[in-house]
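Side project, low priority. Logging it here so it doesn't get lost.
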Amino acid sequence: MEHIDFGQVAKSYAKAREDIPVSLMDSLYIRGIFFDGKKVADIGCGTGAFSRKMALRKADVTGVDPSKELLQYAVALNRLKNYKIPYLQGTSEDTGLQDSQFDMVTVMRAWHWFDREKAITEMKRILKAKGTLLVIDSGFLVGPSVVKKTFEVLSRYVNGGLKPAGTKADSKQRINGFPVEWFDEWQRNGFELRDFYKLNFSVTFTKQEWVERVESVSWLAELEAGVRKKALQDLSDSLSDEDSFVIPHDCNVCVLMLQE
């Protein structure tokens, strides 16, 4: 499938993708998903937002992402926030990591960009027996007026309309945002579904922060720079200058265990 170059919007991505709620980490803890002392590969790590959440909970994390630009921000945030997380340039299909070394593989907001069959093979290769695969997705909901206005503006610039990202666009049925075929693929390849649940949370944005958040989504990342700048300016001009926007989000979590 076609891959989106998020490196084009790396600065906005680094600022806008820190919106991982504390409730996510708490929900994993109460379900017996502990990070302390675990060796974790965070695949599609981007600028390392989820990698840092796990490292804060004493995981031994390695982040992997294909984008050199996003990884540069991840390394810079290591220095700024005093982390020592190693980051490697690689893909979900070819991570460059060693065989059977990881207790856990995490994928945050990225599974829909993968060549899934090849990615599953790679996850199985790097996981230990009975290892855990966490596939997590999150995003803003479409109800608020500011989101509806955003979609209205962006639809003028995105050819073909604002479709679901990556392979989600090809799916006819989804459960909590996850295409139903994913579950069959995981099961056929030896991953047992242990838990699947949804969290709701809200994020407060200033107008500038909301525009930066929008810049980091795939619809904008795939546009030519000049067109993207014009779309963002159009969006900014169309929004009021009120103090903040409270945007509801959801977070969907799938916990799988490798049976082989």
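Brief comment: The first strand starts at residue 39 and ends at 43.
Revisit when time allows.
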